Amino acid sequence: MERPAQPEPFLRGCAFGPAPDVPYPRAAIEPPGDRLPADTLAVASLPVGVRFEWVGDAESVVVDYETREDDLGYRGDGAGRTFALYRGTERVDEQPARLGRHRVELAGGAGEGPRILYLPEGMKPRVHRLVGVGGSLLPAPPQPRWLCYGDSIAEGWIANGPSGAWPAIVGREQSLDVVNLGYAGAARGEIVSAEQLAALSADVISVAHGTNCWSRTPHSVALFTSGLEAFLALLRQGHPRTPIVAISPIVRPDAEAAPNALGATLAELRGGFEAVVRERIEQGDDRLTLVEGAPLVAADQLPDGIHPGDAGHRALASALGPIVARVAGRL
Questions:
Q1: Which CATH class is domain 145-327?
Q2: Which pLDDT band, with edges at 50, 70 and 90, does 331 fall under?
Q3: What's the pLDDT score for residue 35?
């Protein structure tokens, strides 16, 4: 299956080719990508962080699109039911999406800066065509590519929409082409994911996971740390000198001191994560940066006790954006 040709030059945040019924996959989901766990494959079919970017003097844009899903599941409307258009860091228009094949027009906003069109991700959209009204649309210049690996926190749960996820905010503010590889309910440092990231081109990579290794698939500290060591080693095979930012798990009040089925608390898993990264840095990996996750988000910024709300995502973006930009050579 191929993606529609006309909007392809405007496509950003998508590092993989299309698969059957999945125009914008976030992992290689056909063989050999089918070695990924089923939960990872399922969320990788959602176009999280995928967007279209352009410059030009068009007064508005008409989006010819098709959506396939109206039940957004646990994440609800935060998974995306609208098209949101930004000019640089400013949102200039937002319009609802409908199920099926339709068109929608969004005002482009006056002034300089690229236009960024965020999608109704949870509705599994496909964009067939972008049409400029009252002027031209030209593909935005390329930006440094940032591979952002993580779990539901990177995917954007529970921001009020796709553009509010912390990687999306950082991408806008720091002029980075973020590829969101946040896999909700999954992202346990699987070897296949490391292999896939190692095979992609990148100017900077971030790795942030661990909470699902406490709960959904319990890990001991030894299992978690050995998995992280292997994950980082495989990344370095594909990216010997690419900057990597390793972010240990953010706070999760119910898990900090509670042992999981294998006896590990989240605080212990976090400590293991940080120890692995520090050891690699001490051994000479001068392109690896550790960020301690515990202080990044306050407990009262976790509306459900696990995921950041809008204020939490902004806090993550404020803390992590300058670090990612600096190691990528943007600051």
A1: alpha beta
A2: low
A3: 86
Domain boundaries, the chain: 8-139, 145-327
Which pair of tokens denotes residue 329?
């050579």
The pTM is what?
A: 0.96
Asked if CATH classification 2.60.120.260 holds for the domain at 8-139, the reply, yes or no, is yes
Residue 112 — very low, low, confident or very high, per pLDDT cuts 50/70/90? confident
Say how far apart CA 55 and CA 109 lie, in whole Å: 11
Q: What is the pLDDT of residue 154?
A: 97
Task: Give per-residue pLDDT as tens, 286-313.
Answer: 999 999 999 999 999 999 999 999 999 9
97, burial (CB in 10 Å: exposed 0-12, middle 13-18, buried 19+) = buried
